[in-house]
Amino acid sequence: MVFVNKVQECARFIQERMQVRPVAGMITGTGLSDTLTDLQIHQVFPYAGLPHFPQATVESHKGCLVQGSLNGRDILVFQGRIHLYEGYCPELVTFPVRLLQALGVPMLILTNAAGGINLNFRAGDIMLIRDHINLTGKNPLAGPHEASFGVRFPDMTRVYDPDLGRRAVGVAAQEKIQLHAGVYAGLLGPSLETPAETRFLKIIGADAVGFSTVMEAIAGVQAGMKILGLSLITNINDPDAPAQTTLEAVVETAATASEKLNRIITGFVGQTA
């Protein structure tokens, strides 16, 4: 079965069990599966029970699709994402985005746990993604073109919607949360960066780095979705004073700081028509 047919079959499975049309879909990053503590859960679909859906293999990613309401708005939340470094191809990494597209969801919220390269950041800070640098060597649009997904050569000058960004900044200000803004560099992973690699990323303009987000963002642009990207900074990468870190430390920081992310996203979604 071709990929687009698999997506459509999965979409039909969900549509038969869901009577609402969500205003947004959200994909959570490492350690952020339970970010939305204000989410009223209506249905939970384990990835294992969704037709053709790839399985999340990273321990800190729950692997469930949740349908619920947040601040009076219906949304879909993918608790845990699919990564290139798990061995999945770009096509499967973007399955959640294609599923949202098939369901007619107009807005995509991407969150991730990221290492901070900008030395003005601190662990636990949140960064609004203004732009990204794709250093994975992969692209989900490569290969045979599927016309129903969108144009072959989508413009990438405004991946992250400026209006959504301004709204997020406004909510953060109301909540008295400092919200940085910057450029996210997406790497293949899963090995963390060497000091030399961190220095290179800093030189080319990256403020934060991680192993996700760029595949989904590219697919979302092709799908014509409005995108909001938020990085939770879990550690600081200073090439001149490198400090070792672990996945456990990243997850712990993400869990501790995710309450701020919840407040921003809850307020943001509440302002969505």
TrEMBL record:
InterPro entries referenced in this protein's UniProt entry, alphabetically: Nucleoside_phosphorylase_d, Nucleoside_phosphorylase_sf, Purine_phosphorylase
Keyword line: Glycosyltransferase, Transferase
Uppermost EC category: transferase
Pfam families linked: PNP_UDP_1 (PF01048)
Pathway note: Purine metabolism; purine nucleoside salvage
EC annotation from Swiss-Prot or TrEMBL: 2.4.2.1
Domain Nucleoside phosphorylase: 29-269
GO cellular component terms listed in the entry, alphabetical order: cytoplasm
GO biological process: nucleoside metabolic process
GO molecular function, one term: purine-nucleoside phosphorylase activity
Membrane-crossing segments per the record: none
Keyword rRNA-binding on entry: no
Record function comment: The purine nucleoside phosphorylases catalyze the phosphorolytic breakdown of the N-glycosidic bond in the beta-(deoxy)ribonucleoside molecules, with the formation of the corresponding free purine bases and pentose-1-phosphate.
Family to which this protein belongs: Belongs to the PNP/MTAP phosphorylase family.
Record-given protein name: Purine nucleoside phosphorylase
Organism encoding this protein: Desulfobacter postgatei 2ac9
